[in-house]
Amino acid sequence: MEQCGMRFLISRTDALGDVMVSLPVVNRILSRYPSAEVHLLVAPATAPALRGLPGLAEVHLREPEISPRALFERLRPDAVLNLGHRDRAVTVAAREAEVPIRVARARGLDQILAATHLLWAGRTGTGRHEAQNLLEFLHPWGWQGGWPEPARIRLPIPELNEALEEMEALPRPRLGVVLRGSGSGAFPTQAWWDRALPVVASAGWTPVVLAPAGAGDLPATDLRGLMSRIAACDALLTPSTGPAHLAAALGIPTLCLMGKRTHHGPDRWAPLGSRVQVVQYPGPEADLNGGMDRLDPEALLPHLERLR
């Protein structure tokens, strides 16, 4: 198989955090064959985060009501990797468009029959990071295995300067805060945050609530604006959600609050990067029923000091 100059289309049409942990697949392809052409198919809501990402040929939008078959027939990729395995129509459309290589997880009979290469192994409870699991999609080329190279995002100077000017009056060090995510990950209650934010402020940090929109003093912004605000902070305190992975990719020191469910623990979902630390709640309760509120806010301070 001729590999140099191959055209890959990677489909990841779910949430922002899922997209970010998928980017090591792009890195692995380009590290093996820099002349490869790599395209991404993502949900419209996550696409702005990928603007200007080095190495990408193009980012395409997945409209749920429209089959991607026309895109595949126009683009003529050599391979489609359906990392977002719940979007089974992607693999089926790739077969209908006669894409030669179609890699997918064995989820749903239609996807199983449409794929040329299937991943059968389970992911939960293996102790492997989700990015490691996703590298398995490269097994047709023998490029799977090993530790994933974290994604790296650089913001244009004008975008960063706008956020720096917006926060100019806020003393440093600034601690960006994400109160909760929009997905299934655990997060503390507002009552816990009401206790925690004064604790970190007493340690010399200026907490700045960045998300969700409208929860803090800053005006609403879009995803690029959120990225710039994260980059204008000296560290980020956040539960396991999309902005945690964005901060890690931006190189911002990140303290991630995570629960103990196997599906959502740090072994599998911690943000990738050397400037990331993780704190887990200390109790046996279910994450989504107040378990994370058992975390003593004082326990955050040694981690934040190391990040600073």
Descriptive key words:
single chain; alpha/beta; Rossmann fold; 2 domains; five-stranded parallel β-sheet; six-stranded parallel β-sheet; 31% helix; 11 helices; 308 residues
Structural class: alpha/beta
Please summarize the sheet with the most strands.
6 strands, parallel
Major sheet: order of its strands? Answer: 3-2-1-4-5-6
End-to-end separation in angstroms reads 49 Å
Shape-level CATH architecture of the largest domain: 3-Layer(aba) Sandwich
The CATH C-level class name of the largest domain: Alpha Beta
Overall geometry comes to globular
* Rg, alpha carbons: 20 Å
- The secondary-structure element order is EHEEHEHEHEHHEHEHEHEHEH
The CATH topology of the largest domain turns out to be Rossmann fold
Strand content: 15-25%
Characterization of the model:
By secondary structure, the protein is an alpha/beta fold. The protein has eleven helices and eleven strands. Strand 7, helix 7 and strand 8 (206-211) form a beta-alpha-beta unit. Helix 1 (16-32) packs parallel to helix 9 (242-250) and helix 8 packs across helix 9.
Protein topology:
Layout: E1 7-12, H1 16-32, E2 37-42, E3 56-61, H2 69-75, E4 79-82, H3 89-96, E5 101-105, H4 109-114, E6 117-119, H5 130-135, H6 157-166, E7 174-178, H7 190-202, E8 206-211, H8 223-231, E9 235-239, H9 242-250, E10 254-258, H10 266-269, E11 276-280, H11 300-307
Parallel strand pairs: 1-2, 1-4, 2-3, 4-5, 5-6, 7-8, 7-9, 9-10, 10-11
In short:
31% of the residues lie in helices and 18% in strands.
